[in-house]
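pasting input
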Amino acid sequence: MRNLISIFVISFLFSCETVVQIELPDEPERIVVNALAAADSTWLFRITASKGPLEEENYLNTFKPIKNAQVTLKDAEGNDHKIAYKDATPDYIDCEFDNCDEFAVYTSTSKTVENKVYTLEVSANGFPGVKSRFQVPRRVMIDAVEFGEPNLVSSEYYSYSEVNGSIFFQDPPNEKNYYLMEVYAQLKQYLYQYDESTRETIIVDSSYYYNAIYLTSPDPSIINIGVDDIDDHLLINDNLIDGNEVKLNFTAEINAGFDINGRKIAPEKLVVFLKHISEDYYNYLLTYENYLYASGNPFAEPVQIASNIQNGLGMIAAYASDTVVYELER
Amino acid sequence: MKLLFTLVFSLTFLVCTAQKITISGYVKDEVSSETLIGAAVLDQKSGAGITSNAYGFYSLTLNSKDTVKLACTYVGYQAQIVQFFASKDTTINFMLNGEKMLEEIEVIAEQAERLEESTRMSTVSIPVKQLKLLPAFMGEADVLKALQLMPGVQSGNEGTSGLYVRGGGPDQNLILLDGVPVYNVSHLFGFFSIFNPDAVKRVELTKGGFPARYGGRLSSVVDISLKEGNMQEFHGEGAVGLVASKLTLEGPLIKDKASFMISGRRTYIDLLAQPFIARASELEEDEDFNLGYHFHDINAKFNYKFSDKDRLYLSVYNGRDKAYSRYQYESDNNQSNFYSSDEEFGLRWGNVISALRWNHIFNPKLFSNVTLTYSNYLFDIFTNYEDVYRNNENALETEIYQAKYLSGIKDVAGKIDFDYYPNPNHSIKFGTSAIYHTFEPGAFNLNSNEIPDIDITQSTYAWEYSAYVEDDIKISSKLNANIGLHASAFSVNDELYTSIQPRVAARYLFDNRLSIKASYAQMVQFINLLANSGIGLPTDLWVPSTDNVLPQEAWQVALGMAKSFDNGFELSIEGFYKDMSNLVEYNEGASFLEIDTDWETQVTQGNGESYGAELLIQKKSGKTTGWLGYTLSWSNRQFANLNFGRKYPYKFDRRHDISLAIVHEWKPKMDVSLAWVYGTGNAITLPIAKHEGLPEYNTELTNRSRSNTFRPSVNYYGERNSFRMRPYHRLDLNFRFKKDKKWGERTWALGVYNVYSRRNPFYIDQGYDYDTDEPAFVQYSLFPFIPNVSYSFKF
């Protein structure tokens, strides 16, 4: 609804389009550093170059990875975590037909440690050097997760189960804390094969996949956000719950999967993540969501996405997560 | 000795007091008995003079009994001179004739108060007669669009009626309709204002040097007075145009005692477009689709003269806009899979404004006005749908969903104002007012038989009080000053804000009809407009200052010169500097539709400054009238939470702004008018780079390598408003052909908006150049060459 007014007005108004030449400032290419730095996981940085706003972009021409950067990652004790370039292209990818730039990363054998401060420096020929200082938050444990009875909501066009839930945890006192809550449904998928002898399609293997679940909550501590059109996160700040034993209520929409015959397959489990995220990551998520809403709207002021890379672009999104797997009744 | 001195002094004082006489009365139009505001009354013998107040009343105290030669003048009217021996306080009402014009030179020679003589500066007025002759968008003459042609006033986006005065925002204008503040002045998303020129008597814009009687807004006062109605005869006028038609009727209820004026206007875009929409929608037989927009407005005023000392006025305004779409479908009722759908979506907004005023003359030196007012602005976005279908049991089932988002502001107010003229050297105004505000920045109702009902309301109540005193002082024959004080208080929740705002203006008159003027004014604004867009959408929300959101403040200095010439031209040059603090803006990406989020958490406050110079050459009477205006200005903003805390140009920072408006009586029955405008392009924010973003889904759950997840491409914008759109310029022309008829007069008007079809920029976005096959910036324009025709009549 929020963009309907703009669409309503635009559809009545716009009459002419003209290509215009705008003199853009001579903005040099910058180093872009992105990483999802989860506690107790190996370091994985994407280091790419920025582009001009009008440069061509397609599947085969994405952002150029910087493969010869000097990357130094040190913790507060001065230990160097020896980050090095790695081509992580899977064996099944043929770089002649696929864009293997997607797999260029910088990694190390060491892992992130929660509640630790790190500094990162990246330099590369032809680029101004960048720095970042960030802290991996402490893990906040989920005390409990509860789900109520599902209500089936259906019409001619859709059906899903609506479930009310609650998550319980202890917020650390006297400090600013930010959380990202996600819930995924674990669904089974089957690998089918046609049997010539029986002339039937048979199941030869199965595996699990995960669907993000739509979440919503009226709790004032929660800012409902989502990425693209999926509201699959709850973003939480502790302004109202600082130091408390927290119970946050939410509602989840659980969609079924479908088998090869179109029959619904109900989820077996729900995987609940409570991510204790850094303030930088929180600002990134807020501004990114606002950026998406403002994009393409001629009446909205463009939104600058938050960055914690000094003299560069990108985000090192540090967090520590706790997970609870909730078995659903068949 | 002491006793002798005291006696002599007392006698002298008594003699002096006894010799003062006061001449007072009203200045009116001879034909209609409409009061004339700002008419000049001058005693040509003593040189003492005054102007009529907002109700047409004047009072002139002279120092001695003597022959008096009073000249009363008003722009566009024949001067009237009365000579008599004044031995006591006398009431003289002037009835000026606007039908028979003297030659230009004669009129000017009689002009009592010229531009350079007035203490007031930064004030412009456009005669309504002239305003209605200017070329108009779609043929609809518009009060605010005409003001946009004045120096110091920016128009915002193309076609819209928002006023950006000396770097201020559209919420910083106190727009008064017969003394009542109006909160949303836009029809058709800002393309027309709500003010019907046929109902308007006078328009005055004050950009700086604000007299103490005005308060509550930072940047301007637009004072619009409605006609009162002809006390002598019944008259009417109307017009039929491409967009709307209007009709105004006025006349006596009791001759010379009571009169009325009623004026209405309505569009018919929706009716005209309906057949085309139906055809373009390619509807099936069982489908129906309506898409449309319409507005209407009605002004009505009644006035009753109880006696020579008492007069009562009632003015009422009601206007409404509605934009909607409705789709209906119904399948064969006999079918087992019967299905029907009725979906409606729309926006509605409108104002109800009323004022009840009582004028009372206590004595020739003391005039009062008591006013009770009511103002209610409300808008809502609604969506309704109703689906009926057969369920598995073959029974008819209905799904209903009705959602409505409402927002508005309501005021109930009372005020009392006094005009006191103790002697020729002082003209004192003082008064007080109280306003009770009800703010509803967002209320949401949902009724459905499928999901639980929702009712969310955010209402805030506030009291706003003010008191003022100002004195227009004649210090010497060359030096005048207007000194005043405006005090205000705002009580909301448990917070009380108070403010004392000094106002000073002075004028020094040289011998060659040249004066220099200076002014200083402090202003405070307790209510704020949250505008989520650059155009005057009805979704803009009025919210109060609270304990978290401080009142906006400003101070402004101006220095200028003014001169009038014998040939009717007036010249004024002014420089100004304005400093603003606690300005309110949405945080980046925040939206008015975050109904479950307190609006206070979505805004941020910061500062602004603007400065520049304005030139105006104007001619208000004669066969050729018009003006040339030029503004050179800078306007910046600085917010801690926007643009990394760095100063940035205001969106409507327009370095150069030129406007030329000319109305010429080519032949006795034919007028031609033109308007040409030029402005530096608006400031905009464009991306200067793009880069890879973080992956968009949980990499911990994927079975593939964590490195090859989808990563978005995001823009990097750099400094806010660091680019400029192309300059804006446009020429409009209008021709009017009048003819006398037995019943009155008819006029055909032919006009063109944007004569040379300049593609003026409205918005720039990233797009594609299909000629070169490359990404490019694309400019969107709104209005090309648009002709218009209208038929108007008077009787």
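fyi Confidence is low (pLDDT under 50) at residues 1-5, 226-230 of chain A.
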